[in-house]
Design a protein that fits this description.
This protein has 382 residues and is an all-alpha fold. It is 74% helix and 2% strand.
């Protein structure tokens, strides 16, 4: 029973830390972000990069690299989320289908970016950003900016793209393999946990892995941090106000655009933290995020949209049920009833257990379509 409880909690912690950022973006903003898994993937790759930076230093620096990786993953994923919100999602609020399709396209772009990114590509991207955004910022200082805005965009976009692509190709021709070799490639990369996160606490016939205990503690810290931010800080109050009534919040002087960006940045940063935690459990690849995106949406929907407590309960419940079915524990517990035992034995694999969990969730949502903790009051009407 202790084995079942711990593994259920550990799987639930992994799901919860992955769903925490999505619970904010989807629950508070109503945005279906299909690129959430790729933000987790960026956090995992950031952890890999930080590990390689600290590895030559050795000693206490290498043993503590995971804490620097958590901060770096939050920043990288958060900045990516800001770019995504300002560049794509800001123009699609209130249009869920278009948001879903756009963020799905962004997820494919990020996957291919990780596979192909090199010094050659990065030089082209940076040059484009300097030329395009620098040019737009310079022209925005003009008094007739509103009149020339459209024509500036039409002129600068192809011009900046042509210069950036040409410069990148010339750089590749000049330096060849030095700058054209991908940083990561399509193959998975491994993140090695610090020494103090290896092994586990022996408990009878099994042990409690330190890595999973660390993820459970990290999840608790993230939940506490988000709770106090949303309920005890000025910006947290503003986020909740905009969530409940955007028009009235704008009338009271709350900068709703800034609140949207901040909310998306925090949700995306939490996805990066989740990617850092997940990298301790296995190898990291371009498709890492796709392995978790469906499960994270299940946690948010089952728990109740916009309810942090619901996400916690749903993550633990889904993690425990998943382990009970996938590990064959239910099959062993029902050996006295052979037909029932054979039924659970058929689903006693990781993939089939997920199918069973999906079926149970579908049945549950037929009974409680609003989740475990449905919204109440005026928020539902809005």
């Amino acid at each position: 029973m202790l084995d079942v409880i711990f593994n259920g909690l550990s799987i639930g912690a992994v799901l919860l830390i992955a769903a925490l950022g999505l619970a904010i973006v989807f629950g508070l903003m109503g945005v279906i972000n299909m690129a959430h898994g790729e933000l987790m993937m960026l956090g995992a790759y950031t952890t890999f990069v930080v590990q390689n930076i600290f590895k030559p230093l050795g000693g206490i620096f290498y043993e503590s690299y995971i804490f620097f990786a958590l901060v770096a993953a939050f920043i990288v994923a958060g900045l990516t989320g800001v770019l995504l919100e300002r560049g794509v999602i800001r123009f699609l609020y209130g249009r869920p289908l278009e948001t879903l399709l756009a963020t799905w396209g962004v997820s494919l772009i990020l996957q291919q970016f990780v596979r192909s990114v090199s010094w050659q590509m990065m030089s082209g991207v940076l040059l484009f950003c300097v030329l395009f955004f620098g040019g737009m910022g310079f022209l925005a200082q003009r008094t007739d900016w509103q009149r020339i805005k459209t024509w500036s965009l039409i002129a600068l976009l192809p011009l900046s793209t042509a210069i950036a692509v040409t410069s990148s190709l010339l750089l590749g021709q000049a330096l060849k393999l030095t700058v054209t070799k991908p940083w990561f490639g399509a193959q998975n990369v491994d993140v090695t946990a610090p020494t103090w996160l290896r092994g586990g606490i022996p408990m009878g016939n099994f042990q409690l892995p330190y890595a999973r205990l660390f993820i459970i503690v990290l999840t608790i810290v993230c939940i506490a941090g988000i709770y106090f931010f949303l309920n005890r800080s000025t910006w947290g109050l503003r986020i909740r106000a905009v969530t409940q009534n955007r028009s009235m919040s704008a009338c009271l002087g709350i900068p709703t655009d800034t609140v949207d960006t901040l909310t998306f940045a925090i949700g995306s940063g939490l996805a990066g933290v989740a990617g850092c935690a997940i990298s301790l459990l296995g190898s990291v690849g371009p498709n890492t995020g796709q392995n978790y995106i469906v499960d994270t949406f299940m946690v948010v929907v089952v728990g109740g949209v916009g309810k942090l407590v619901g996400s916690i309960v749903a993550a633990i419940a889904i993690g425990t049920v998943n382990y009970l079915i996938g590990s064959g524990t239910l099959a062993l517990m029902t050996t006295a009833f052979q037909p029932v035992s054979d039924f659970f034995t058929f689903f006693a694999t990781t993939s089939m257990a997920k199918v069973m969990v999906f079926a149970l969730i579908i049945i549950f949502l037929q009974i409680k379509p609003a989740g475990l903790f449905p919204q109440k009051g005026r928020t539902v009407d809005v």
